[in-house]
Amino acid sequence: MGNNSQSKCGCGGMIFWRSASKDNNADNFGKASKTSDTKKQQGGREGVTLIETASSDKHADSSSGSNTKPVPLVNQTRQRNHPKALQTQGYVNNGRRVPKEAEGNVNNGRRVPKEAEGYVNNGRRVPKDAVGISGELESMFSDRQKGSSTLVRASSSNVMMFSNLGNLRKGGNTNTNSQNVVDYRTKQSDESPVSNGRYTNQRVENASKGSTEKTGSLCRAVSTRMDPEQLKIMGNEDYKNGRFEEALALYEAAISIDPNKASYRSNKSAALTALGRLLEAVFECREAIQIEPHYQRAHQRLGNLNKRLGETDKALYHYKLAGSEADPEEMAKVKKIQFHLNKCTEARRIGDWNNLIKEASYAISSGADSAPQIFALQAEAFLKLRRHQHAEEALLKGPNFDVEQCTRFFGQICNANLLVIRARVYLAVGRFDDALVAINQACKLDSNNKDAIKVMMKTKAVASARSNGNELFKASNFSEACAAYEEGLENDPYNSVLLCNRAACRSKLGQFEKAVEDCNAALNLRPSYSRARLRRADCNAMLKRWEASIQDYEILVKETPEDEGIKRSLMEAKEHLLQQRSE
User: Fold this and answer.
1) Alpha-carbon distance 469 to 475, whole Å?
2) Mean of the pLDDT values across residues 339-350?
3) Against a cut of 0.85, is the pTM above it?
């Protein structure tokens, strides 16, 4: 729907044209079996911490010393050839052999009976049925407790690693890509290697790379064992408590494990909606529906999103498919929005700009609060009425979506028209660079758009005239600078910035009356244009119109109370007014 470039879009279609693989590290067993004396390899539990993964419900606690290599399993071939090894085959921990009949988990040299098999932490036995994700995380937390501040406890029984705090960004980090609570995108080099049907730990080769790499490996090790349903439950808890960034990270982690589950994508859409990322939420809902076409909750959410985006036909379509999930009140709101948009279409056709502004406001208040095409309609109407300040405010109130995402949803032609209006507003208020960026994007999207080509030529001419005038003004060539600004005004007679700049030239040339006229014209277009007001106040002071000058200075003092220069000018104007009245 949104990917195709269509001839109509927005406002009822009448306004805008528009698996993890095997690891080679299994060879480590063969290399380790050549060690002549395993007893020499005993060491304390420090340095690199490893998280083990289990097979057949057996968990081997691996430990490594700061200056020793990790102790592997006893080579089975060697055991068979050694007479004493026939009675002591099993796991080896810290160089100690364990009798086969007592085979099970071994931690810090302690044997654990098979019937009590489970996670062992610091020599304490934990019942098997009490071990889950939270138990695994507790084990990690204990292992990393000494000498490290990179592991913090978070909500929903979750653990966040340094540099992996969901979508929360660190200060100064320019990376906009969201990071999950667990680094769920595992690499083969970080997974536990498989050998003889049994999982074993993989040692970090270079411990000097820093604690961030270690904690990332820990996080990846845990993520491969997390149940995506558990991640979803944790995300739901965060969502209910208003922690939308954390919830989003958990939903993304669940999707990475099971990308074909519609509910995960639908929940991610809800989190994105709560964060104001509506277009991304739409795309996630579409993915959910593609996986499960009759998923009513996803249709209901997609209907709500289309309502807010002003796509009333799409909203009604998805509400119908939502079945019992659809809210009759929401459907009534969509029909109300549709009614006001039809009024907008008619008002625009006949040039009734005031009525268009009113009907657009009704549509927005009825629920289309994130529809860029409706805010663009308002901005266009304000431009027609030469109310440039209100036009800019209308754009600022509306959403500022990414151009690519907006094109994907609305289509190339429609988004090109939205960008043309945005460029016109930017040009009118003197944001020349922004205007050039917007109109260039519009021309790329629709090279045959005549309005875009016209605005492009106008923007370039006005921006060039303003730049030339500024250079001449800095060189104190005020007459030539004035002529340059006038050249720009020939292309855009109601450009407030060019009017104000010409007023500055005229005041330097002693043409105070003409300067006041230019300032009046600029302030009519933009009442909050402080620079034009200040220049008018100064010119009126030069003309000894103290009352008019005082009126402008008082407004400026309220707007910029920290400006001592304006305060002094106000005091001087009041003194002159008293002297004038006393004469």
Assistant:
1) 10
2) 95
3) no
